[in-house]
Amino acid sequence: MHLSPSQCQQARLAKDPRYDGLFFTAVKTTGIYCRPICPAPAPKEANVEYFPTAVEAAQAGYRPCLRCRPDSAPGSPAWLGTGATVKRALTLLDEGALMTQSLASLADRLGVTDRYLRQLVTEATGLSPKAYSLYQQCLMAKKLLHETQLPVTQIAYASGFHSVRRFNDCFQKRFSLSPSQLRKQGKAEQSLGQGIQLQLAYRPPYDWKQVHGFYAARLIPGLEWQTDNSYGRTFSHRSGAPDQHYQGYFTATHRPEKCCFEVMIQIDRLCGLIPVIQNIRRCLDLDADSDRIAYAIRHAMPATDAHHVLTGIRLPGIWSPFEAGIRAILGQQVSVKAARNLVEKLVQLNPDSGDVRQFFPSPQQVLDTDLQQLGMPQKRRETLQHFARFAQSHPAGLDAPEKDVLALPGIGPWTLHYMRMRGLSDPDIFLSGDLGVKKALAQWDHPVHESAASPWRSYLTLYLWSML
Fold first, then answer.
1. Mean pLDDT (10-residue bins), the chain, 468 residues
2. What's the total number of domains in the chain?
3. Are residues 210 and 258 both part of a single domain?
4. CATH number at residue 130
5. What is the 3-state secondary structure (H, E, C) of the chain?
6. Where is the HTH araC/xylS-type domain (predicted)?
């Protein structure tokens, strides 16, 4: 645990939201574990123990609190104290990877054996990959039971269970309550077409102005939309088996007084709900520990006085690695505005796009598009086609070895790193070859120790962009 027991004690007694999700308090006398912001009276220190994750508290035999609902806490950054492979594995498990593929397939995607993957996850969480995934599925089901009016059968399916009986047994075993006991009586059931409304919490501070402005400069009308306090976009998933395809849209409204976003999701198939929720969290960077990140950037730029800029800094993501790759290719050697215009035209050429809602094209749709309609050099059109073919043969996209991506004509280190920074939300990418970064460094009269910002160099890149 990166927090000492005395730090945890002070944080829980103060109910400090900046520590929400960084640790959990388990009460020995009740057998329940809570978030540090739990509204219940604080128990005596002698009666508590601390865990860095909800999974470890559950593994020790504790049940989640029904008042503060640990299932709603922001997640701890996966890159803290873990290697790259286990970090990526836990991210994919949180997204429901084992709901649609076997452990062997997941291990192959990560480039390791299933035995080694099992060892890594067990060492990191104390649970096997399957047990860890099941617990995350149950936590998601618990959140849906609390916050939506979807029928229990639909919640079971959305959470990755193929039978209600299996769902009930698994839920009862982990929470000592049945789904129907947890749900408040008298709730009117809701159809999928009415949309799903959820609250996604973050750990304050959160610089919404920075995130809003970043998206606004790159916004594609119809694909995305904004108001002063909201951001939304469409999404479409067309890889894998046909029964795993889904599409829809969401709008996330910022509620700073609640330290959360209220999210409305319209989706045509519930099989995609968990990946969509996790992707919204990633794109809005809801699980970042911004205080720690700001400290690292100030360490890398010791002469800076940028408290107002760094407070609550976040890394706005792009919906998929494929979309990030296409945007990066279209953005090569042109301004942000010119790149946005090219992306907008490509989206309009997608046959799935309508007058109101537009969708980013799939790899096959890019290959089927007449790219001559894009005002750009022929070599760049060919790069788009090469990348689309690569994405078709590598469904995991940028999980492929870097050398394979860099072998594609027209793909260099800047393009690859931009894809990873925004398409996978890799926190440790420093775009040293970026023109904007070079201009910012040229304006700065002091040395920049970019290695000192690791593992948050992506945020240093963002900060340097903000200086222009």
1. 85 93 95 95 95 91 94 78 80 89 90 92 91 94 92 93 94 91 66 83 95 96 97 92 90 97 96 94 95 89 72 95 95 89 95 91 94 93 95 73 91 94 94 92 88 93 91
2. 4
3. yes
4. 1.10.10.60
5. CCCCHHHHHHHHHHCCHHHECCEEEEECCCCEEECCCCCCCCCCHHHEEEECCHHHHHHCCCEECCCCCHHHCCCCCCCCCCCHHHHHHHHHHHCCHHHHCCHHHHHHHHCCCHHHHHHHHHHHHCCCHHHHHHHHHHHHHHHHHHHCCCCHHHHHHHCCCCCHHHHHHHHHHHHCCCHHHHCCCCCCCCCHHHCEEEEEECCCCCCHHHHHHHHHHHCCECCEEEECCEEEEEEEECCCCHHHCEEEEEEEEEEHHHCEEEEEEEECCHHHHHHHHHHHHHHCCCCCCHHHHHHHHHHHCCCCCCHHHHCCCCCCCCCCHHHHHHHHHHCCCCCHHHHHHHHHHHHHCCCCCCCCCCCCCCHHHHHHCCHHHCCCCHHHHHHHHHHHHHHHHCCCHHHCCHHHHHCCCCCCHHHHHHHHHHHCCCCCCCCCCCHHHHHHHHHCCCCCCHHHHCCCHHHHHHHHHHCC
6. 87-185
